[in-house]
Specification:
The protein has about 100 residues and is an alpha/beta fold. The protein has one domain: 3-Layer(aba) Sandwich (Rossmann fold). The chain has three helices and three strands; from the N terminus they run βαβαβα.
Protein backbone atom coordinates (compact mmCIF):
# COMPACT_ATOMS: atom_id res chain seq x y z
CA UNK A 1 0.00 0.00 0.00
CA UNK A 2 1.27 3.52 -0.69
CA UNK A 3 -0.21 6.10 1.63
CA UNK A 4 2.06 8.87 0.37
CA UNK A 5 3.74 9.38 3.74
CA UNK A 6 7.23 10.03 2.42
CA UNK A 7 8.38 13.39 3.76
CA UNK A 8 5.70 13.38 6.47
CA UNK A 9 6.30 13.13 10.21
CA UNK A 10 4.22 10.88 12.45
CA UNK A 11 4.10 10.84 16.24
CA UNK A 12 2.87 7.59 17.78
CA UNK A 13 2.10 7.47 21.49
CA UNK A 14 2.02 4.19 23.37
CA UNK A 15 4.42 2.83 20.77
CA UNK A 16 6.55 0.50 22.87
CA UNK A 17 4.25 -2.49 22.42
CA UNK A 18 0.90 -3.70 21.15
CA UNK A 19 -1.24 -1.62 18.83
CA UNK A 20 0.91 1.49 19.17
CA UNK A 21 3.99 -0.46 18.11
CA UNK A 22 2.12 -2.01 15.18
CA UNK A 23 1.00 1.43 14.00
CA UNK A 24 4.55 2.78 14.30
CA UNK A 25 5.96 -0.13 12.28
CA UNK A 26 3.43 0.38 9.49
CA UNK A 27 3.90 4.17 9.35
CA UNK A 28 7.67 3.71 9.09
CA UNK A 29 7.18 1.08 6.37
CA UNK A 30 5.10 3.64 4.46
CA UNK A 31 7.99 6.11 4.55
CA UNK A 32 6.99 8.45 7.37
CA UNK A 33 9.64 9.94 9.61
CA UNK A 34 8.72 8.68 13.04
CA UNK A 35 8.73 9.84 16.63
CA UNK A 36 7.51 7.34 19.21
CA UNK A 37 6.70 7.79 22.86
CA UNK A 38 5.92 5.60 25.82
CA UNK A 39 6.43 5.63 29.59
CA UNK A 40 8.88 2.70 29.52
CA UNK A 41 12.15 4.20 28.24
CA UNK A 42 14.05 0.91 27.99
CA UNK A 43 11.37 -0.92 26.01
CA UNK A 44 10.78 2.18 23.88
CA UNK A 45 14.47 2.43 22.91
CA UNK A 46 14.50 -1.23 21.93
CA UNK A 47 11.30 -0.81 19.92
CA UNK A 48 12.57 2.32 18.16
CA UNK A 49 15.83 0.60 17.22
CA UNK A 50 13.93 -2.40 15.83
CA UNK A 51 11.79 -0.12 13.63
CA UNK A 52 14.70 1.79 12.13
CA UNK A 53 17.82 3.84 12.80
CA UNK A 54 16.17 7.24 12.40
CA UNK A 55 13.21 6.70 14.75
CA UNK A 56 13.11 9.29 17.53
CA UNK A 57 12.23 7.76 20.91
CA UNK A 58 10.87 10.10 23.60
CA UNK A 59 10.09 8.60 26.98
CA UNK A 60 7.14 10.41 28.52
CA UNK A 61 4.02 9.95 30.61
CA UNK A 62 1.14 11.69 28.83
CA UNK A 63 -0.72 11.93 32.13
CA UNK A 64 1.84 14.37 33.49
CA UNK A 65 1.08 18.04 32.77
CA UNK A 66 3.44 19.45 30.16
CA UNK A 67 4.61 16.10 28.80
CA UNK A 68 2.43 16.11 25.66
CA UNK A 69 3.75 19.56 24.78
CA UNK A 70 7.33 18.48 25.44
CA UNK A 71 6.98 15.50 23.11
CA UNK A 72 5.74 17.70 20.27
CA UNK A 73 8.52 20.22 20.91
CA UNK A 74 11.23 17.54 20.84
CA UNK A 75 9.87 16.10 17.60
CA UNK A 76 9.44 19.56 16.08
CA UNK A 77 13.05 20.41 16.90
CA UNK A 78 14.18 17.27 15.09
CA UNK A 79 12.14 17.78 11.91
CA UNK A 80 11.10 21.44 11.68
CA UNK A 81 13.66 22.29 9.01
CA UNK A 82 12.71 19.32 6.82
CA UNK A 83 8.99 20.10 7.05
CA UNK A 84 9.37 23.81 6.36
CA UNK A 85 8.13 24.63 9.85
CA UNK A 86 4.81 22.90 9.21
CA UNK A 87 4.95 20.86 12.38
CA UNK A 88 3.44 21.12 15.82
CA UNK A 89 2.02 24.47 16.76
CA UNK A 90 2.76 25.99 13.35
CA UNK A 91 0.80 23.27 11.59
CA UNK A 92 -2.75 24.02 10.49
CA UNK A 93 -3.69 20.51 11.58
CA UNK A 94 -2.67 21.21 15.20
CA UNK A 95 -5.42 22.93 17.12
CA UNK A 96 -5.98 22.12 20.76
CA UNK A 97 -9.58 22.48 21.79
CA UNK A 98 -10.00 25.04 24.57
CA UNK A 99 -11.75 23.60 27.57
CA UNK A 100 -11.13 20.01 26.51
CA UNK A 101 -11.17 18.01 29.76
CA UNK A 102 -8.74 15.52 28.21
CA UNK A 103 -6.08 18.22 27.87
CA UNK A 104 -3.97 19.12 30.84
Amino acid sequence: MNLGLGGKVALVCGASRGLGRAVAVELAAEGASLAVCSRDADVLETTAASIGPDVLAVAADLGVPGEPTRIVEVAAARWASSTGGAFGHESPSYSPRPGNPQQR
